Amino acid sequence: MDVEALEQAALAAVAAASSTDAIESVRVEYLGRKSELKLALREVRDRETGMSLNAARERIEAAVGARENELERAELDRRLAEERADVTLPVGGYERGHLHLITQIRREVEDVFLGLGYGVVDGREVESTHYNFDALNFPPGHPARSHLASLFLDDETVLRTETSPSQIRTMEAQEPPVYIVSLGRCYRRDTPDATHTPMFHQVEGLVVDEGIALSDLLGTLDLFMKALFGQERRTEFRTHYFPFTEPSVEPYVSCHVCDGAGCPVCRHSGWIELGGSGMVDPNLFEFVGYDAERYSGFAFGLGLERIAMLRHELPDLRELWRNDLRVSRQF
Amino acid sequence: MRVPLSWLREYVDTVAAVAEIARRLSISSLEVERVIEVGVPDVDGNLGHFVIGRVLSADPHPNADRLQLCQVDVGNPEPQQIVCGAWNFGAGATVAVGLPGALLPGFPGPLEERPLRGEVSRGMILAEDEVGLGPDHSGIMLLPDGLQPGTPLADVLPLVDHVLDATPTMNRPDLLSMIGIAREVAALCDGALRLPGPEDPPVTSPEPVDVAVEDFGGCPRYIGRGFRNVRVGPSPQWLRTRLHLAGMRSISNVVDATNYVMHVWGSPLHAFDRAKLAGGRIVVRRAHEGETLRTLDGTERSLLPADLLITDGEKAVALAAIMGGLDSEVSDETTDVLLEAANFEPIGILKTSERLALRTEGSNKWEKGVDPYAAEPAAVLASRLLVDLAGAEPTGSVDVNDGLPERPVVTLRPERSRALIGLDVPDAEQRSILGRLDFEVDEGWQVTVPTFRARDVTREIDVVEEVARVVLDRVPKTMPLRRAVAGHLSAEQRFRRMLEDVLVGAGYSEAYTWSLVPSDPDPVALRLPDPMSGEHAVLRTTLLHGLVEAARVNVDAGNPDIRLFEMARVYLPSGDRLPDERWYLGGIAEGGFAAARGALEAIYGTFHLPLETRRTTLPHLHPGKAAETDAGWLGELHPTLLDGTWGVFELDVARLWTPRSERILYEDVITYPAVRQDVAVVVDEDVEAGSIVAVAREAGGAELRDARIFDVYHGDQVPEGRKSVAVHLAFQASDRTLTDEEADAARARVVEALRNRFGAELRG
Asked: SS3 for A23?
């Protein structure tokens, strides 16, 4: 037999095969058990013929294999080309819920201060008047002590009016340095309206260490306010009064809506007041037994609802307590 | 506190413009909420259109009964003819005139010469409300005689002015006065303070003034001054205008004088009709049990022994520092006046005014603590005004006090103040700042505090604040230099965040509901004795009420896929004064028991906790679909509580968290594969899945890695009252591959145990 002619015929058939079925026929015809080549191999007697037959078989096999891969790939490509999904069609199936807006802000605030190396303290909500007023240096006639302003359980127990009692509890529990924030619910006897709810959330910060100055408070709140409202904001501080800080200042941030030009969000002042702050009054150190000559510190308190209201232009705080999913899902 | 700039500038000389004054005050002294522009439009040349005029003649308008035709000297050679609708003046009156071209507030265009009923009117004779100098429109402004016609009106009255709307903090009652604000402006804007120093009018017809103070604790000082032949009448225009700009109403010259002086010195005064005081006396004392007083507002007040009263020795005539009595009020008939310039202690005043819900301009000042030294200059200025405005004749003065307080002396270390502020404020500057604020600083840095700051500044840190606030806008922004940094969330805080995330991933949205609820299932839940409303009366011991209400809001809104959770405190009565505050995690979702169970499986699964549920009954749950776990409960909400089929659950976070093992140890599940076998058994309907798994686990031994129910079947293939339960079993050893024989034997043990325990029959 003419091996060379056979091989030529086989390779031509491989080249001519145009489908995986056709190539399978070629394989059966030229390499199958009853193919001329297989029959010849079975009958070969001399080594030289065997080698040349085997060499031809390997080349045909390689050609068949290569062509087969080629055709399979072409067929796959053709099939895939016909399969089209509407990539814009929603499929649903993984309905996720939403954290409450105040929780989202709470975490954002916590994360800023965690990044600055502060701890997070969970304070109590029902407090003794000692922690809520006396130890915070509230003078006897301070309006917050009044039953008209605060919610009392009895003469010595009040729903905390700010997160500040956690300052005292923290300092009683540890020695300086103290770097903490404390976030949570507070209570005041405010009739609910668009900008007041009798329950609301604050973040309290407290730092006590050697060498802490007013400038450190300003730097820390500057960083914090820019983290919340944008790096391009400006910040300003104005004198104020709080019983538990001396000196006391109110932090302001330039309005994120009008950038200071004046708009309804900032009530046309260009500035937004965000809370209260100041240097820890030495009387507090005396209450908790810290050395006021060695240590100094600062504290601040901000309303989380106020941040929500300003940043998201929320028209009515009561919406935060209604829990309508149409609102929750926006955030 | 309303601060008209024209008035303020009488007491402080500074070149600073209003915007600068407002800004400096905001940063260093008190909140300036806004700057109000008052008067006529301050545009080019407008002020030149307003002049003093003298009415030469005023005759009835020939063609109109209700108008006057006036000839007015406005400083020109020819008189100005003006038609006027007011009748409170005649020839010879000195008036304010707006000439043609004048722009008035609220008018669209300038005044024009125009005929009115056939007679040309060249300008307007002005009423105070037309130029923002008062509220009155019943007649035109009558100005004092002697002003030259043609004089610019702006020289006489604040025709263009700015009013600061400012709110002092409660430690600065000294800023509830024009003098106090002027002193700050002088210190902050490099100005010179000019205190008013009128001559104290001499006593002309001496007569004793009888004042007795029985309670110096409540009333440390009482200056009483007598006046006779007082002519009560209207106030002059300048006084009406100042009161108007300061936000007060003009009443009469006598009452206006006291209000004016209160605004100047911050020390409220009161004028009594002395004829109404028995024997013209004043006795300051606490109220008797059951005593009453009808106050100026006409209300009969019931008094308590803690209330401080001004009496005439026989009856109460004023609620001290809060409101005068109706019977002793100055009226048009009053001729004898007793002027009170006193000082009252804040706390008692606050208590009384709060109890009676009676807050007045006076009580608002007293309750913050007024400088007792201010009573004297206030008395002098008020006397001067009563003499000048009402022709009063002083009869005498008495100053009853138990000794006035010493000024506090504080030692300041200027280096301490630099360290606390974080700014290098040189010694000389600190001295100068304090000096400008009326603090006296001696060579050894002994600082003597002025009387009007004596309540607020008693320690070194308070003096440091005085320096700090003045330099506040120069303080740099720095960060603490730390020796130790150790901030992180606690394990429990991280756990709570993960709980929130698991539920959010499971499709639950977070709700915030009120801690105070209308009622609570726990009969001893803490109840506010004086709640804001019945809706917010009890501190909750469960989150359920709030979640049900939140679900209801969403049902009513027609929202689909309602799934809500809340993680918040509950307040469990502890026997102590303070409740046990615990974090609870609650949820509500459409879909009944399965929804609740699904949420708990997600939570327990996340933390690798075994979810073991036991049937229970709770009043708020469906009696057949209620269970408890080691940390709380779950079930189907009782259908009476909310329409629909709802799954609800509540877990005590601390109880969920405590059993969590700290370390999860590696187990080899790769090297020797598990042998999986399924088994289906028929058991009685009431055999619970949980007990089948428990029995299987017990019987399967250590090598039973997993036992899970994957199908429960009722129907034709099983008898009535029975069910078929299919359990997936996986056997695995960590040291060898189990043989089929070993797995078969283990499976047989499970089947045998189920048979013995539940009479289970192996199914096909």
From this structure: helix
pLDDT of residue B659: 54
Q: Which two tokens stand for residue B684?
A: 């009685």
Q: Which residues on neighbouring strands pair with residue A302, listed in sequence order?
A: A203, A275
Residue A319 at interface with chain B, using a CB cutoff of 8 Å:
no
Residues 6 or more apart from B151 whose CB is under 8 A from it?
A: B51, B52, B75
Residue B306 sits at the chain A interface (C-beta within 8 Å): no
Averaged in consecutive runs of 10 residues, what is the pLDDT profile of chain B (764 residues)? 96 95 96 92 90 94 90 93 92 94 89 90 93 91 92 93 95 95 95 92 92 94 96 95 94 96 96 92 93 92 93 92 91 95 91 89 90 96 97 96 94 97 97 96 97 95 97 96 82 94 96 96 94 94 97 96 97 94 97 95 91 94 95 96 96 83 79 91 92 92 90 88 93 89 90 93 82
10 Å Cβ neighbour count for B171? 22
Sorted by sequence, the CB contacts under 8 Å of residue A70 that are 6+ apart come out as none
Q: Compute the count of residue pairs across chains A and B with CB atoms less than 8 Å apart.
A: 231
Q: Cα–Cα distances in Å, from B39 out to B42, B50, B128, B241?
A: 8, 12, 10, 11
CA angle B679-B681-B684, nearest 5°?
Answer: 155
User: What residues form DSSP beta bridges with B3?
Assistant: B164
Backbone angles phi and psi of B475, in degrees to 5:
-70, 130
Cα–Cα distance measured from residue B366 to residue B267, given in angstroms and rounded to the nearest whole number: 8
Peptide bond into A177 cis (omega under 30): yes
In a mutagenesis test of the B interface, which of A101, A153, A156, A169 is the best target, namely the one with the most B β-carbons within 10 Å? A153
pLDDT at B662: 67
Measure the CA–CA gap between B476 and A215, rounded to whole angstroms. Answer: 5
Selected for mutation to probe chain B from A94, A110, A111, A126 (highest B CB count within 10 Å) is A126
B465 touches chain A (CB under 8 A): yes
Cα separation, B75 vs B52, in Å, equals: 8
Question: SS3 for A87?
Answer: coil
pLDDT of residue A260: 83
**pLDDT, position B661:** 59
**Closest listed residue to residue B306, CA positions, set B288, B282, B328:** B288
Q: What angle do CA B289, B292, B293 make, to 5 degrees?
A: 145
Chain A residues within an 8 Å CB radius of B507 = 95-97
Contact B738, B703 (CB under 8 A): yes
What's the N-to-C CA distance of chain A in angstroms?
82
Distance in angstroms (rounded) separating the CA atoms of residues B221 and B158: 36
A146, A222, A223 member nearest B354 (Cβ): A146
B5 φ, ψ (degrees, to nearest 5) = -65, -35
Q: Which of A217, A115, A198, A290 is nearest to B512 (CA)?
A: A198
Instruction: Kindly give the parts of chain A with pLDDT less than 50.
Output: none
Retrieve residue B305's tokens. 């022994």
Mutation site for B-interface testing, chosen from A104, A150, A246 by largest number of B Cβ within 10 Å: A246
Question: Which amino acid makes up residue B107?
Answer: F
Pairing of strands B282-286, B308-311: antiparallel
Relative to beta strand A178-187, strand A119-121 is: parallel
Structure confidence at residue B372 (pLDDT): 96
Number of helical (H) and strand (E) elements in chain B, helices listed first: 17, 39
CA gap B37, B132 in Å, rounded: 10
Q: How far apart, in whole angstroms, are the C-alpha atoms of residue A53 and residue B48?
A: 124
Largest distance between two CA atoms of chain B? 133
> Are the beta carbons of A224 and A232 closer than 8 angstroms?
no
CA pair distance B664, B269, nearest whole angstrom: 77
Q: Are the Cβ atoms of B503 and A120 closer than 8 angstroms?
A: no
Contact across the interface for B581 and A125, Cβ inside 8 Å: yes
